[in-house]
């Protein structure tokens, strides 16, 4: 048995690392000081993707490319975040990665382990949430690191994690009242509750403000009755706390939308069919149905008819954090392609010694490293308090770049593996199917280009007027 296979087998052992919440204390410096007490990922450990059976016949130790010394272009040491990354990676490798193939195959999270409870206990579900509610009180750079490392272990878990921790939790952190935070955040941060956000409808995808879900005042003026549906909702089938946008004043267009906090079990709320997706399988997606769903006034998030402001307050950060997902998928593709290229022999030598293969690996690395650098540059800007048109442009640019590069990189990984890349025994096909979602979800590539171009023209026009 090669060392990579031994490490992959060891990865199924129960994780016993110290929770991030204990170490972070809301302070990265404290996190670094305490790192000596954490379990570390040893050099030479297995890639984040579990080693397929067909790879076990390959000899040598090159399959350790996914270890702590892999060439991944990360520069976390300069920012004091390497310790955080290493321990999230260790958690993801041991707790999530062993289930990745089965999650995809079965289109469901494993029954034998509660991944939500595991992530909650480790402190991952509230990276940007205040410590007073059980969060880490850290920034978007750390949130991106968590999203990247979880996605490298499993794209499906990464997507569901992003929908929960950013689209739901971070929106509550930014917009909820103190009472709402006290009510919802503790459960969401432990994994006892699962979060989701619902904007899209069958007829309102990119044109989200054309939504038809109606929220009318209940008879007598107490609360609201919601009627209509939402579609393509990540975590929808299992979510217990959902942020849902509805039209309270249809005649006012985007000035008549309100955000609501919906709870599983509310009268008139149900979920319909679970969607059978091409990729991101196991990251459950479904239709939400509202039939005179009764929602009390205290479940309005933000102000009535001000839902677009709530939506836009978190949309840039949604794109930013989700952009780290395809970066993780690119790293996973590299973790498979590099060891394979050094061990697979044709014409009497490893295929990695052929210049055409080296060129493909170079392109893969360059796409991954440039995407990662841009994502974390934008994260640093967000943590520094940048906002407005420039941040909106750059967040859209980050996910546009990372998403399209991820599709290229995962396709190239398939090509490096040749016939093996096209069979399900290897993870490359799954990585490609997962990567494609990021060109569609959280705004299509076309919408991102439109937004970026619009902001550039606005900036140029403003500069010309000075």
UniProtKB/TrEMBL annotation:
<feature type="domain" description="Acyl-CoA oxidase/dehydrogenase middle">
    <location>
        <begin position="196"/>
        <end position="293"/>
    </location>
</feature>
<keyword id="KW-0274">FAD</keyword>
<feature type="compositionally biased region" description="Low complexity">
    <location>
        <begin position="59"/>
        <end position="68"/>
    </location>
</feature>
<keyword id="KW-0496">Mitochondrion</keyword>
<keyword id="KW-0809">Transit peptide</keyword>
<dbReference type="InterPro" id="IPR034183">
    <property type="entry name" value="IVD"/>
</dbReference>
<dbReference type="Pfam" id="PF02770">
    <property type="entry name" value="Acyl-CoA_dh_M"/>
</dbReference>
<keyword id="KW-0560">Oxidoreductase</keyword>
<feature type="active site" description="Proton acceptor">
    <location>
        <position position="318"/>
    </location>
</feature>
<dbReference type="InterPro" id="IPR006091">
    <property type="entry name" value="Acyl-CoA_Oxase/DH_mid-dom"/>
</dbReference>
<dbReference type="InterPro" id="IPR009100">
    <property type="entry name" value="AcylCoA_DH/oxidase_NM_dom_sf"/>
</dbReference>
<feature type="binding site">
    <location>
        <begin position="442"/>
        <end position="443"/>
    </location>
    <ligand>
        <name>substrate</name>
    </ligand>
</feature>
<feature type="domain" description="Acyl-CoA dehydrogenase/oxidase N-terminal">
    <location>
        <begin position="81"/>
        <end position="191"/>
    </location>
</feature>
<dbReference type="Pfam" id="PF02771">
    <property type="entry name" value="Acyl-CoA_dh_N"/>
</dbReference>
<comment type="pathway">
    <text>Amino-acid degradation; L-leucine degradation; (S)-3-hydroxy-3-methylglutaryl-CoA from 3-isovaleryl-CoA: step 1/3.</text>
</comment>
<dbReference type="GO" id="GO:0050660">
    <property type="term" value="F:flavin adenine dinucleotide binding"/>
</dbReference>
<feature type="binding site">
    <location>
        <begin position="316"/>
        <end position="319"/>
    </location>
    <ligand>
        <name>substrate</name>
    </ligand>
</feature>
<dbReference type="InterPro" id="IPR013786">
    <property type="entry name" value="AcylCoA_DH/ox_N"/>
</dbReference>
<feature type="binding site">
    <location>
        <position position="206"/>
    </location>
    <ligand>
        <name>substrate</name>
    </ligand>
</feature>
<feature type="binding site">
    <location>
        <begin position="444"/>
        <end position="446"/>
    </location>
    <ligand>
        <name>FAD</name>
    </ligand>
</feature>
<dbReference type="InterPro" id="IPR009075">
    <property type="entry name" value="AcylCo_DH/oxidase_C"/>
</dbReference>
<dbReference type="GO" id="GO:0006552">
    <property type="term" value="P:L-leucine catabolic process"/>
</dbReference>
<dbReference type="InterPro" id="IPR037069">
    <property type="entry name" value="AcylCoA_DH/ox_N_sf"/>
</dbReference>
<dbReference type="GO" id="GO:0005739">
    <property type="term" value="C:mitochondrion"/>
</dbReference>
<dbReference type="Pfam" id="PF00441">
    <property type="entry name" value="Acyl-CoA_dh_1"/>
</dbReference>
<dbReference type="GO" id="GO:0008470">
    <property type="term" value="F:3-methylbutanoyl-CoA dehydrogenase activity"/>
</dbReference>
<keyword id="KW-0285">Flavoprotein</keyword>
<comment type="similarity">
    <text>Belongs to the acyl-CoA dehydrogenase family.</text>
</comment>
<feature type="binding site">
    <location>
        <position position="355"/>
    </location>
    <ligand>
        <name>FAD</name>
    </ligand>
</feature>
<feature type="compositionally biased region" description="Basic and acidic residues">
    <location>
        <begin position="69"/>
        <end position="81"/>
    </location>
</feature>
<feature type="binding site">
    <location>
        <begin position="232"/>
        <end position="234"/>
    </location>
    <ligand>
        <name>FAD</name>
    </ligand>
</feature>
<feature type="binding site">
    <location>
        <begin position="197"/>
        <end position="206"/>
    </location>
    <ligand>
        <name>FAD</name>
    </ligand>
</feature>
<protein>
    <recommendedName>
        <fullName>Isovaleryl-CoA dehydrogenase, mitochondrial</fullName>
        <ecNumber>1.3.8.4</ecNumber>
    </recommendedName>
</protein>
<dbReference type="InterPro" id="IPR036250">
    <property type="entry name" value="AcylCo_DH-like_C"/>
</dbReference>
<feature type="region of interest" description="Disordered">
    <location>
        <begin position="57"/>
        <end position="81"/>
    </location>
</feature>
<dbReference type="InterPro" id="IPR046373">
    <property type="entry name" value="Acyl-CoA_Oxase/DH_mid-dom_sf"/>
</dbReference>
<feature type="domain" description="Acyl-CoA dehydrogenase/oxidase C-terminal">
    <location>
        <begin position="305"/>
        <end position="456"/>
    </location>
</feature>
<feature type="binding site">
    <location>
        <begin position="415"/>
        <end position="419"/>
    </location>
    <ligand>
        <name>FAD</name>
    </ligand>
</feature>
<dbReference type="InterPro" id="IPR006089">
    <property type="entry name" value="Acyl-CoA_DH_CS"/>
</dbReference>
<feature type="binding site">
    <location>
        <position position="344"/>
    </location>
    <ligand>
        <name>FAD</name>
    </ligand>
</feature>
């Amino acid at each position: 048995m090669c060392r990579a296979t031994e490490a992959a087998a060891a990865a199924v052992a129960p994780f016993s690392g110290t929770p991030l919440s204990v170490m972070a204390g809301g302070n990265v410096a404290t996190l670094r000081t305490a790192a000596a007490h954490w379990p570390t990922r040893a050099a030479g450990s297995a890639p984040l993707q579990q080693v397929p059976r067909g790879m076990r016949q390959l000899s040598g130790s090159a399959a350790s490319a996914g270890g702590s010394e892999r060439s991944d272009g990360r520069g976390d040491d300069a920012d004091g975040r390497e310790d955080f990354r290493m321990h999230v990676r260790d958690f993801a490798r041991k707790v999530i990665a062993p289930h990745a193939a089965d999650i995809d195959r079965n289109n469901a999270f494993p029954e034998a382990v509660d991944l939500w409870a595991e992530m909650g206990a480790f402190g991952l579900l509230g990276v940007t949430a205040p410590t007073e509610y059980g969060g880490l009180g850290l920034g978007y750079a750390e949130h991106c690191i968590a999203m990247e490392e979880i996605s490298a272990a499993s794209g499906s878990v990464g997507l569901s994690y992003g929908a929960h921790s950013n689209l739901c939790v971070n929106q509550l952190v930014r917009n909820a009242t103190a009472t709402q935070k006290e009510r919802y955040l503790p459960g969401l941060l432990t994994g006892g509750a699962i979060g989701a956000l619902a904007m899209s409808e069958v007829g309102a995808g990119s044109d989200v403000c054309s939504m038809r879900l109606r929220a009318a005042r209940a008879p007598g003026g107490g609360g609201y009755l919601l009627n209509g549906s939402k579609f393509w909702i990540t975590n929808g089938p299992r979510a217990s706390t959902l942020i849902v946008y509805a039209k309270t004043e249809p005649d006012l267009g985007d000035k008549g939308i309100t955000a609501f906090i919906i709870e599983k079990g509310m009268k008139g709320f149900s979920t319909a069919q679970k969607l059978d997706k091409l990729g991101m399988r196991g990251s459950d997606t479904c239709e939400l149905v509202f039939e005179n769903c009764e929602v009390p006034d205290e479940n309005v998030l933000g102000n009535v008819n001000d839902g677009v402001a709530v939506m836009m307050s978190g949309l840039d950060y949604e794109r930013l954090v989700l952009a780290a997902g395809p970066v993780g998928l690119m790293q996973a593709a590299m973790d498979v392609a590099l060891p394979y290229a050094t061990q697979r022999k044709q014409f009497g030598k490893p295929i990695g010694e052929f210049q055409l293969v080296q060129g493909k690996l170079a392109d893969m690395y360059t796409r991954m490293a440039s995407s990662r650098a841009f994502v974390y540059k934008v994260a640093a800007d967000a943590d520094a308090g940048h906002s407005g048109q420039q941040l909106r442009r750059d967040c859209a640019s980050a996910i546009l770049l990372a998403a399209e590069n991820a599709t290229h990189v995962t396709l190239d990984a398939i090509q490096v593996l040749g016939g093996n890349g096209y069979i399900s025994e290897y993870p490359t096909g799954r990585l490609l199917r997962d990567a494609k979602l990021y060109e569609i979800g959280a705004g299509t590539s076309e919408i991102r280009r439109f937004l970026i171009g619009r902001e550039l023209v606005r900036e140029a026009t403003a500069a010309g007027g000075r």
